[in-house]
Specification:
Elements lengths: L12 E4 L9 H16 L3 E4 L13 H12 L23 H14 L2 E4 L3 H13 L15 H9 L5 E4 L6 E6 L3 E6 L7 E4 L7 H11 L4 E5 L6 H11 L5 E5 L2 E3 L17 H6 L4 H9 L14 H7 L10 E3 L1 H14 L2 H14 L3 H8 L6 H11 L6 H13 L15 H16 L9 H12 L4 H12 L7 H7 L2 H16 L1
Parallel strand pairs: 1-2, 8-9, 10-11
Antiparallel strand pairs: 3-4, 4-7, 5-6
Helix pairs in contact: 1-10, 6-7, 9-11, 12-13, 12-14, 13-15, 14-15, 16-17, 16-18, 16-20
Length: 505
């Protein structure tokens, strides 16, 4: 059945609700970005809510990391812990426990929920028996409509209890998914009556999220495809409480190009966390652009979009229900395009920022050399290598090479491809030209190389490639005159003399 076109009408309120049990990873960022674009394109409100009830799994600085990295990506919410709207606050689930408990009691009073005194051992035995008999594991409702005598006996034994929502039999939970189209589940196939309040009095995810979304007036729920099995349970809660439901949309998950399976932490070839992309020299604008294409495509062939252009172009009807494949080459290309476009001074500032943070081996090495204070050097090297760099780390590695070139042992192996006498002629002539410069002069290496060409008659690859080898240890190099201009003239002279001495020996 063909998916109907989605029309967005009225007020729009969407939310991104991370758990501080981990840091912002690429899948989180995908969900956050599409909620952001949805809110901005349809002139709505984007809410940040923190689902922090799993205190045992919460990690130190998890919430702070989520917020900092969202800001780094350029995503800013309208409401949240730091921007509370009194009508909807608080924005931490841990501070909303009494709200959840109130609605649990309402369902108990209506007979739509009940106390379950089954022990963990009993539930495990039930599960094992069902698996052995090749029955889909589900709770069998054994405590629904339990006798008063059985309840009193359980209380006398000191048993703890959970509270479960009772599901009607053979009932269809259906919705028109904004991305997938019509989806439905039968109540008999979603695991049986499920827990809405744990024995410690804490609401479960599938219950708390419904209360939060309803009370915060969330109109549209955009989240990962891995949540689709939760949706019928949440609809069951909406129906039991008589709440109006939001419109759901389930975003395709991100898959590995290598394995064609869902991207996981075991995929060592792919960076998982946004903080890693940040420290390894990806630009926030480029990463945002790249993530936008993981599950969505614009009209036309354009691939490079500013954030404002993404907002304008976004259309929920162009979200894909097919898997989104993480293409590292595409990310590197996108990042390279953004590096080329970046203002030279801004490029230097961002590299200096990475060096100051010293979160990689390269950054720490440059920080020891206080390179973060030499913005002129960073800008010069950035200008030379920006057209070939895929990340800022590529430029940082070139700076390390330049800072260590005085002690670097060149192999000169590539000299074998060129005429020895021609190379000696070029090196000797250029060395003399450099040596004759006034000590206070700023060398114009472009002019000096042209003078060498005119005087010696040697040109093209016979002129430039040997010079590339002398100064970069590679035949292929950017504008060699610009590279030489970064070096101290005395070092340029020494390297030319060393190369000539190597050829004579």
């Amino acid at each position: 059945m063909k998916k109907e076109k989605v029309e967005i009408k009225g007020d729009v309120r969407v939310r991104y609700a991370p758990s501080p049990t981990g840091f912002l990873h690429i899948g989180n960022a995908q969900s956050a970005l599409f909620n952001y674009l949805f809110a901005r394109h349809y002139n709505g409100t984007w809410v940040l809510r923190i689902e922090d009830t799993d205190t045992k799994r919460n990690v130190e600085n998890g919430e702070q990391s989520q917020m900092e990295n969202l800001h780094w990506l350029g995503l800013d919410w309208d409401e949240g812990p730091d921007k509370p709207n009194v009508e909807y606050a608080p924005y931490h689930q841990s501070k909303r426990v009494d709200l959840y408990h109130h609605y649990v009691q309402e369902l108990l009073a209506k007979g739509l929920a009940y106390k379950d005194y089954a022990t963990e051992a009993e539930l495990k035995a039930l599960h094992d028996e069902q698996v052995e008999n090749k029955i889909a594991p589900h709770y069998d409702g054994r405590w629904y409509n339990a006798s008063e005598e059985a309840i009193q006996q359980a209380e006398a034994e000191g048993r703890s209890y959970t509270i479960r929502l009772h599901l009607p039999q053979d009932h269809v939970y259906a919705w028109n998914d904004m991305i997938k189209g019509h989806v439905e589940f039968n109540s008999d196939n979603i695991g049986g009556d499920f827990i809405i309040e744990k024995s410690d009095g804490m609401a479960t995810y599938n219950f708390a999220v419904v209360i939060d979304d309803y009370l915060m007036k969330i109109t549209h729920v955009l989240r990962g495809d891995d949540h689709i099995a939760n949706t019928p349970k949440q609809i069951a809660v909406y129906e039991a409480l008589g709440f109006s439901q939001p419109t759901f949309g389930h975003i395709t998950l991100i898959y590995s190009m290598a394995t064609h399976k869902k991207l996981s932490k075991r995929d060592q070839d792919t960076l998982q966390f946004i903080s890693q992309y940040r420290k390894y020299g990806y630009l926030s604008e480029a990463l945002l652009n790249f993530i936008a294409f993981l599950g969505w495509s614009p009209v036309g062939e354009k691939e490079i979009f500013s954030k404002e252009e993404l907002i304008d172009a976004y259309d929920i009807n162009r979200m894909s229900a097919s898997p989104a494949y993480f293409d590292q080459k595409k990310l590197d290309w996108t990042n390279g395009e953004y590096i080329k476009k970046l203002d030279s001074a801004e490029l230097a500032r961002r590299i200096a920022e990475l060096i100051t943070a010293a979160e990689t081996e390269e950054a720490a090495q440059l920080k020891e050399l206080a390179v973060q204070n030499d913005l002129a050097l960073i800008e010069k090297v950035g200008h030379i290598y920006r057209s070939e760099a895929k990340t800022l780390l590529d430029i940082m590695k070139k700076i390390i090479f330049i800072k260590q070139i005085a002690t670097y042992e060149f192999s000169y192996a590539d000299f074998a491809a060129f005429d020895r006498e021609k190379m000696l002629t070029v090196f000797d002539y250029l060395a003399n030209e450099v040596n004759d410069l006034p000590t206070d002069a700023t060398p114009d290496y472009s002019a000096l190389i042209k003078a060498t060409q005119k005087a010696t008659g040697i040109k093209g690859r016979d002129l430039y490639m040997p010079l590339n080898i002398v100064f970069t240890d590679s035949q292929s190099a950017p504008q060699i005159n610009e590279f030489m201009g970064v070096l101290d003239p005395q070092l340029v002279l020494r390297l030319l003399q060393q190369a000539a001495a190597y050829l004579r020996n």
